[in-house]
Design a protein that fits this description.
This is tRNA N6-adenosine threonylcarbamoyltransferase. The chain has 2 domains: 2-116 and 300-316, ATPase, nucleotide binding domain (Nucleotidyltransferase, domain 5, 2-Layer Sandwich), CATH 3.30.420; 125-297, ATPase, nucleotide binding domain (Nucleotidyltransferase, domain 5), CATH 3.30.420.40. 44% of the residues lie in helices and 19% in strands. With 333 residues, it is an alpha/beta fold. It contains 10 helices and 10 strands. Bound molecules: 5'-O-[(R)-(carboxyoxy)(hydroxy)phosphoryl]adenosine (KG4) and zinc ion. 5'-O-[(R)-(carboxyoxy)(hydroxy)phosphoryl]adenosine is lined by residues 10, 136-138, 163, 166-167, 178-181, 184, 269-271, 273-274, 301-302.
């Protein structure tokens, strides 16, 4: 089954063609990062406008690279929640128009579900159930994936998402947007034990995260040093901050895995590209004899191939939408 998939929830306009949820025939991503960089973060209004400009070209290119015409597509999948509402609406309306005009079924896909599904594209043997950590710019969730379309959230962030904490802390260090990527690079040359940052826990919620105190503590540290005319060593600071975030993520995931008897662990979302998170999780999972599945780096961030994968399983489950489909900024998985 050929699925055409569309993603526009944040600052990437993406389209892909995916076969039977597992095989990428094409995957096109038009990134707006360079433009948002000027403002230090995603400007929603600009994101929506750029999606409008790019979407038809990106979809056309995805079909061309797959060597398929719209007639040969069996269904159209689109990210409809959660995300920036104006950005989501561009993809949803485009997909609705296309589905209606071409007489194809329309499959609405939840963004976090698709981040998890990125792993199905890279690991043919991966099937639910498993435990997933989804860490992105907007979300940090520990999720029991019971089946392709059945999820149970065990833990979540109480304030900032892990990627958001990386981006805001990186900004205070003078690093460009998207901060997480640059923090990872700068940290390669740093001493992760140079500074100590808090490893906050949430009372009564053993699998929840709280990153805002951690972020504030690095911002204050930089501010206080600046007041004294001191400059802190950037790579040590970044490496120490990264270590604190990764320690917390690993700690909660491993606890959840132990408590629920998870048989395998999956990472997903933009932050799963983080080199320290990948290597630490690898070590911990090896110690426990737990198989760990990581998305390849090109499928960690937002893309439409992952939407095509999850869309296939939503289609099989009969989760279809009509022309009244709306985009939703917030929606639990
Ligand atoms: O999944 P994603 O592309 O978009 C959302 O759905 O939010 O995630 C983007 C987030 C950003 O916060 C970015 O800084 C972070 O993922 N990120 C990283 C790395 N690469 C991307 N954070 C830490 N280390 C990285 N290597
Ligand atoms: Zn995302």
């Amino acid at each position: 089954m050929h699925l055409l998939a569309i993603e526009s929830s944040c600052d990437e306009t993406a389209a892909a063609v995916v076969d039977d949820g597992r095989k990428i025939l094409s995957s096109v991503v038009a990134s707006q990062v360079e433009e948002h960089k000027l403002y230090g973060g995603v400007v929603p209004e600009i994101a929506s406008r750029r999606h409008v400009e790019s979407i038809s070209g990106v979809v056309r290119q995805a079909l061309e690279e797959a060597d398929l015409s719209l007639d040969q597509i069996d269904a159209i999948a689109v990210t409809y929640a959660p995300g920036l509402i104006g950005a989501l609406l561009v993809g949803v309306n485009f997909a609705k128009g296309l589905a209606l005009a071409a007489g194809k079924p329309l499959v609405p896909v939840h963004h976090l579900r698709s981040h998890i599904a990125a792993n199905y594209l890279a690991h043919p043997d991966l099937e639910p159930p498993f435990l997933a950590l989804v860490a992105s710019g907007g979300h940090s969730h520990i999720i029991e994936v019971k089946d392709y379309t059945a999820f149970h959230v065990l833990g979540r962030t109480r304030d900032d998402a892990a990627g958001e904490a990386f981006d805001k802390a990186a900004r205070s260090m003078g690093l460009p947007y998207p901060g997480g990527v640059h923090m990872d690079k700068v940290s390669q040359h740093g001493n992760a034990d140079a500074f100590h940052f808090p490893h906050p826990k949430v009372d009564g919620a053993p699998y929840d995260f709280s990153f805002s105190g951690l972020k504030t503590s690095v911002i204050n540290m930089i501010h206080n040093a600046g007041q004294k005319g001191e400059e802190l060593p950037l790579s040590d600071l970044a490496a120490s901050f990264q270590k604190a975030v990764v320690d917390v993520l690993c700690d909660r995931v491993m606890k959840a895995a132990g408590d629920t008897g998870a048989k395998r662990i999956v990472l997903a979302g933009g932050v799963s590209a983080n080199s320290r998170l990948r290597s630490e999780m690898q070590k911990l999972c090896e110690q426990k004899g737990l198989p760990l599945f990581l998305p390849p780096l090109n499928l960690c961030g937002d893309n439409a191939a992952m939407v095509g994968s999850q869309g296939y399983y939503e289609y099989l489950a009969g989760h279809l939408a009509g022309p009244d489909l709306n985009a939703t900024a917030n929606m639990s998985i």
